[in-house]
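Comment thread on ticket #2218

A.B. wrote:
> Attaching the input chain for the structure job we discussed in standup.
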Amino acid sequence: MSEHIAPRHILVRANGGASPLHMPSGVWSDPAVESFTAHVGLDDRELQLPTELAAHLRKWSQARPEGGFTKGPELRNHVKAGRNAARALARHLGAAWVVRYFDDSHGTAKFVCWGCDRLHWSRYADDEPPHPLHVAVQAEYRWGPLRAEGFGDFLPDDPAAGLRLTDELVEGLYAWSRDVDALLDRQLATREVEPAAWEALSVHGLRLAGRLAGEIEPGRTVSYEGIVHYPEDLHRRTSPVEPE
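C.D. wrote:
> Ran it. Output below, let me know if you need it in another format.
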């Protein structure tokens, strides 16, 4: 694949061969199923498929007999396995790709959401992404530690955001938010600023943002917006974030 189609579309459709992946021939903004005639190998560098996912897609595609299935139960099982494979592909590719899955039992091709695993008839409503593409890490008293346009503040395990973070990172973000609340409560009670404690929390927040950037799907970005209540006379850290 030497040319990119913007946005890049890919169709998952079993054909009995080594790869069930296809892209449209030509330039299409909203390609019809019939236009997906360009075969895409599972070793394509742009896809960067993990070995396990590539093997799963290959096995599923080759399981389709020439001429299709003749028994209903076998077809239903194959369709179900294909949906799971397409979901895994969409999660891996993230927002940079538009993944569609061809259902052999109904002859339909639905869009696979990279954030929530659902299949839809349209890419997404009102041309707005269903999940945040840019996530800011920011601590504010009694608020969630993450921000996104259209979402406001939210929690790291909020299913609506579709982040799919590890339990360790989720708990880390929760703990960081709690520690900021506790420090501010202590400061309000004693009327004493603790520069070392504020600095430690600021540095830790930046590290958490780096871990977040390393875990979320391709096509999403992360920035670190610091701590809202950070003392004015101390250096406040804010920056775009590179994955750790």
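A.B. wrote:
> Thanks. Noting for the ticket: Residues 167-190 form the longest helix (24 residues).
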